[in-house]
Amino acid sequence: MKHTHDYYAQIFMLLMTGKRGYYRPEVVDALMANTEAVALVDDFTELFQAHVTESSPGDTADTTREDCASVPVQMPLPATTMPEMPTPDMITPEPITLTALEEAPSATPQAVAPGRDDAEPVEKTVLVPESSQPSESTQPSESSERHEASLESSVSPHEIREPIDVQETTLSPGDVPAPSAAPKEPSVSEVTRNIPNGRSGQYYQHDLGALLSAASSAVTDITLVDDGGTGLVIEGHQLIGELAAAGNFQLVVTGCADDGTCLARWTLRLAIIANPRDLWKTLPSDAQALYAKADCDVARETSPAGWQMFMASQRGRSHAHRGGQRDDHGVIQTTSAGWNILAVADGAGSCVLSRQGSLLASTRTVEGLAAYLEADEGTLEGVVLEYFEQQSTLKTPPKAWIDALYHSVFTSLHQGYKAICEEAQASNQPVKAFSTTLLLALHKPSPQGDLVITFGIGDGGIAVLETGRVATLMNHVDAGAHAGQTRFLDGAVFSNAEQDFYPRIRIQRFTALEALVLATDGITDPMFESDNDLQMGESWWRMFDDLAPSLNGPQATGALAEDSAADAVSGPVDDPLVRYLDFFTPGHHDDRTLAVLLRPHTGSETTQEEGANHE
């Protein structure tokens, strides 16, 4: 270091506070340890001395340069410790004139005791010699000469006499000028805050009223000056709009007074999360794969009596994401005898050939039933209706009733299972590789009411919807102990018919039937929160309310049939029923298949009459 410890301490104090006085040793020690700060002080001292030397007049130039070079200029320093330190407000140093510096016995003036009236004007006299030689009456000492030389560059070469108000304009050594009294621009409050996250592709709304509440009362309006690329706007105090791209964004909002003066500025940080639906890929399935089928399928039929039937099946997102095949299958068929048959099957996702199992189980079963009912000549219908008339006096179903179910439903289901076994043997694959569930329903209108016979193995649901928004679940749901577990069509159903087949049969007669719905678990799982909800009529009717507009779509004839044939891999993707099945529910991306039967006069309308009658 080129100077004393106190010298640097006072320089640092002046820079930090604008006043000389007591300083904390630990603060100065920290600054003294900063060699760069000390070096800056040294550089300033050398530049100042050089400037003073160059400014010295004529004959004394050499002497002044020599003195300045040999004796570094030291600032007057008070003691670093004092017995009793008054507060800074109590210290009002008296202005010091150049004459006082000349008469001072020491180069270090003592602190002036307080007590002078700050408001009293004083006369400040600064004498600057006009020539290089001072007058005899004012011959300065060697010490005062140095001070005079250092001050020459900052004063005019003539005598200045003017009254100065100490309180307003007089500055003591180390003081800084008072701030200007001119009016300042109002300060702008800068705030950064996070706002709730949004999701791409969805509508966003956030109330900015809290910003106004926290701002100055002078802020009366807020304006969006930069939407950050989000596309959002402000209406009233609401930040609204549809979010597009995902990412992190910053929006800038300002708050202004009535006269337009900006008083607040908010930076709003918004995170837009990618829509999960946008993350799913839709890859075509392999048309050359074993047992390949179209990614979606649609069928419509109308019975001679005017009953309408619909079937739609769509590959789930979990399969489409990797280009897999559709495992579900659905079939509808009407007979000339007036029977309507509906079936949906859900191939097990863990079984590589279950798509063929669902196809064989549903198609062969419906084919067998249609053939039997065409030749039945009313036997099944008559036996079942007679049972309903006598069931109050019968403890068990009569043998004729059991035989009719055996030759119709039991035998047809066995034909479907037998087709699976034969295909497994032909392809040298285990029967388990073709595992599938199956939901089956037969419907026959009669003067006594609508007869409905159902069979179900596995999950999913069969429901009859009646007038008055009432619904009846027509199958037992085989839910496993863990999610995704269920029962599949297997040999035990037929080898132990009394325990595993007949208990799965449901037969009822309805006098207010509006619709019959069959749905695989790809639909029921996202639509119903639990298996208990499958028992609630309102839950089924809410689903039907969403489905009904899609039932008015084009028939499977003409242009629709041509489009379906032209794209054998994708199938009729633009069909209204397929678009309905494309609804998005997080966590539910399985194949979806449904079959629907509607009364002739109902169409897609829902009847709101109260009450329902069924036996």
Fraction of residues in H or I helices: 25-40%
Q: What is the terminal-to-terminal distance?
A: 109 Å
- The outline comes out as elongated
Helical run tally: 17
Q: Quote the beta fraction.
A: 15-25%
Q: What class do helices, strands and sheet pairing give?
A: alpha+beta
Q: What can be said about the biggest beta sheet?
A: 6 strands, antiparallel
Query: How many extended strands?
Result: 21
Radius of gyration: 49 Å
| Low-confidence runs of at least 5 consecutive residues | 58-167, 556-566, 602-615
Mean pLDDT: 77
Biggest sheet, spatial arrangement of strands = 11-12-21-20-17-18
Structure description:
The protein is an alpha+beta fold. It has 17 helices and 21 strands. The strands form five sheets. Strands 11-12-21-20-17-18 form a six-stranded antiparallel beta sheet. Strands 3, 4, 6, 9 and 10 form a five-stranded mixed beta sheet that branches. The protein has a five-stranded antiparallel beta sheet with strand order 13-14-15-16-19, with helices on one face. α9 packs antiparallel against α11. The protein is elongated, with a radius of gyration of 49 Å. Residues 58-167, 556-566 and 602-615 have low confidence and may be disordered.
